[in-house]
Design brief:
heterodimer, A: 398 residues, alpha/beta, eight-stranded parallel beta barrel, two-stranded antiparallel sheet, 16 helices, 40% helix, disordered N terminus, B: 319 residues, alpha+beta, nine-stranded antiparallel β-sheet, 16 strands, 29% strand
Chain lengths: 398, 319
């Protein structure tokens, strides 16, 4: 549906939060707009199915354009460079805060990854959100995330560590205080794995402390999350998908074939337990392209495109959130985390964040250069040449 | 049947000659070898940039070199920023006060080869502290308490002292003198109007300028009128006239596809596009031969035209 038709549709106009979101004098009457808004669990948030990941945000005008096209949910973090400040400029300029949902994270304002660890003082949690509010030039966050649960490496009990972060009394108490003061409206948790993503998210859902979960899920890796998604739906916990492009590597699309990104988004959104997805949008072309997937039916052509991608990359792409290789390395190299930062660098163009993340890893892949042990490759359920990918990643990320 | 023994022997003797010829040929085209030669030449060039003596300070015998694969050893936590900004190599020299037996240097001179002067400039503007004062060294430079930094050609130079009253400025001047006046690609900087410019507000955007994928390598400066009205001016450079025309065409295509209203206007002898943009406010797109200016004036056309006067005055040869 084009925007002109959309504006004619009174039924949609009355139901959609987009109505008030269109700035005066907006352009592009024939452009595609968001077609679907979904209740995000019990949060009261009605989010656009395609939403805006602000990981590389550099332009307030791009946010204004996205809002004009109906995207109403924006995900940022203190450790995403200038993202919060740029989004804050946009919020101020657009002056439609009530038409936008803003999510940020319990992180320090340092370089990525700035996730606050378990045991952080309550006042530090609160101060981190207050700093985010100042950056964002707003009084409240719609969601505040405990970010990247299950991240970490080494021969430790990651499930227990993850649980400590999930149920850190100081964090939960800070969240309560922030809610009471009207500074956050909901508490959420995200995970890219690699450790126990499904188990930790299941714990989060069952605990009743979290309003929303945000797992990494794509057409190449999803089976492990089925139980979590079912449970979230049953408990009324919202689900936002991320990392939906399975690396978003280059693929040749011939005329007549379904575009890759839209196919990947449609695949994720056909799952009724998922309320929406976030994707990094860097420019207007991506905005135009991604939005067309909103409320679109997943077709056999889409499946063909995804099959083509899988054929090309099945033995290259590390499935975010898997982590089966983690315990296989005798040198405790943080295989899955390194694979993810390699993806940020090579496929997402997020060189800085990738290198920041890699630097923070204790067991780096330099030890792979002299290692003949192939246990890591045997442990990979997808048959990836893990050792050579790790060696290449080390060169790239240092 | 077959070849005579003497011919066979001759062919056998020729084998090493053929092998050597192939080997020699491969050396000429081995990119690794070519890179190596180039690297060596550049290394020597940088080496000459460090004066042996500055005031009463003497350079240590050994310079330290870093490439992108080991820059983190020197800039732990900040290497990736330099790499993503175009970093090629870094040379570091320690300077000691004459007669000093300290193992810690008194001054450290770092010269970053950033491949392009625009990259070096981008780093300078990001790195210099807000309270630094501008200095007249290189194409642009700043000095603060214990640091002086400037750009010269594609090089970003940073000099640190461990003492408060160190002769930073003379160090900067001496290093600049050793380097010579390198051609500066950031003459682009001089193209931006000076009137009403907000100090230290220049930003360099490598890609996706204002969310547009086709606009790259842009310098943008903030401005404020006497009555506190804010506006911004940016400039980008094309390799030639046709590249600038190509970018303008992309802008016009974008305006059309987004139904953004624009019109061609004339002010004095200057032709520009006046754009009514629902997301950026009103702005002007002003091409010269190889430059493309954008003036984001939010409806204050007079501000835009005053800026055009200044651009034209400064850049008349471009027309």
């Amino acid at each position: 549906m084009k925007r002109r038709d959309f504006l004619k549709s009174s039924a949609l106009l009355s139901g959609a939060a987009i109505l008030g979101a269109i700035p005066k004098g907006s352009a592009a009457k024939d452009k595609e707009v968001i077609q679907k808004y979904t209740e995000l669990g019990k949060t009261g948030i009605k989010m656009s199915d395609i939403s805006f990941g602000c990981g590389k945000l550099s332009s307030p005008a791009l946010v204004a354009r996205a809002l004009d096209r109906g995207i109403n949910y924006y995900d940022t973090a203190p450790d995403y460079g200038n993202s919060e400040k740029v989004l804050g400029n946009a919020i101020k300029k657009i002056n439609k805060r009530d038409k936008m949902y803003i999510a940020s994270k319990f992180c320090s304002q340092s370089e990525y990854p700035g996730h606050l660890p378990a045991g952080t003082q309550k006042k530090v949690y609160i101060e981190s959100i207050e700093a985010s509010l100042r950056n964002l030039q707003t009084d409240y966050l719609d969601l505040c995330f405990v970010h990247a649960i299950g991240e970490g490496s080494g021969d430790v009990d990651h499930f227990s560590l993850g649980k400590k972060r999930l149920f850190d009394e100081n964090m939960l108490s800070a969240a309560e205080t922030l809610k009471k003061d009207g500074k956050i409206r909901g508490l959420a948790v995200s995970s890219h794995g690699p450790n126990s993503m499904d188990k930790l998210l299941l714990e989060a859902v069952r605990s009743g402390h979290f309003d929303v979960i945000q797992p990494a899920i794509s057409f190449m890796h999803y089976q492990h999350l089925t139980g979590v998604l079912d449970e979230a739906k049953k408990k009324g916990v919202g689900v936002i998908a991320m990392k939906t492009l399975a690396g978003g590597k280059y693929i040749d699309i011939n005329p007549g074939e379904a575009p890759f990104e839209q196919a990947a988004f449609k695949w994720v959104l056909k799952n009724k337990a998922i309320n929406g997805l976030i994707v990094t949008i860097n420019n207007n072309d991506q905005l135009n392209s991604y939005i067309t997937a909103s409320n679109s039916e997943f077709t056999p052509q889409d499946q063909k495109t995804l099959d083509k991608y899988m054929t090309k990359y099945a033995s290259d792409h590390c499935r975010t959130g898997c982590g089966d290789c983690q315990s296989s390395c005798s040198k405790n190299v943080s295989i899955a985390a390194i694979m993810r930062f390699n993806m940020y660098y090579q496929d997402y163009g997020m060189e800085k964040r990738a290198m920041d993340g890699y630097r923070a890893i204790q067991s780096k892949a330099d030890s792979c250069n002299e290692c003949a042990d192939k246990s890591c490759e045997k442990a990979c359920p997808f048959g990836l040449p893990v050792a050579s990918i790790l060696k290449e990643a080390h060169n790239l990320l240092t | 049947m077959g070849l005579s023994i003497s011919i066979r022997l001759l062919l056998l003797l020729l084998l090493p000659v053929i092998a050597f010829s192939l080997y020699y040929d491969s050396l000429k085209y081995d990119p690794g070898l070519l890179d190596f030669k180039q690297e060596k030449a550049n290394k020597e060039e940088i080496e000459n940039f460090f004066p042996d003596k500055i005031d009463s300070f003497k350079k240590s015998d050994k310079l330290h070199y870093y490439l992108s694969n080991n820059l983190y050893e020197y800039l732990n936590g900040h290497a990736e920023y330099f790499i993503s900004a175009g970093f090629k190599k870094l040379a570091v020299a320690d300077y000691f006060k004459q007669g000093s037996d300290s193992v810690t240097p008194d001054m450290v001179v770092t010269i970053f080869d950033m491949a392009k002067s625009i990259n070096a400039f981008g780093v300078l503007m990001e790195e210099a502290s807000q309270d630094a004062s501008e200095i007249n060294v290189g194409a642009k430079g700043y000095i603060s308490d214990r640091t002086v930094s400037f750009v010269n050609g594609p090089f970003y130079i940073k000099i640190n002292s461990f003492e408060k009253d160190a002769p930073l400025l003379s160090f900067a001047r001496e290093v600049a003198k050793s380097m010579g006046n390198l051609e500066s690609g950031i003459t682009l900087l001089d193209k931006l109007p000076k009137k009403n410019a907000v100090a230290r507000s220049i930003k360099f955007h490598r890609e996706n300028y204002r969310g547009l994928g086709f606009v790259k390598n842009v310098l943008e400066q903030s401005y404020k009128t006497e009555d506190q009205k804010e506006y911004a001016i940016s400039v980008t450079e094309g390799k030639n006239e046709s590249e600038v025309k190509g970018t303008i065409q992309k802008y016009l295509d974008y305006f059309k596809s987004e139904e953004i209203t624009y019109e061609s206007k004339k002010y004095k002898d200057i032709t520009y596009y006046s754009v009514q943009d629902p997301f950026e406010g009103e702005w002007a797109l002003l091409p010269t031969k190889t430059l493309l200016f954008s003036i984001y004036h939010s409806g204050n056309e007079m501000v835009a035209q005053n800026s055009m006067d200044e651009i034209e005055q400064h850049d008349i040869t471009e027309k």
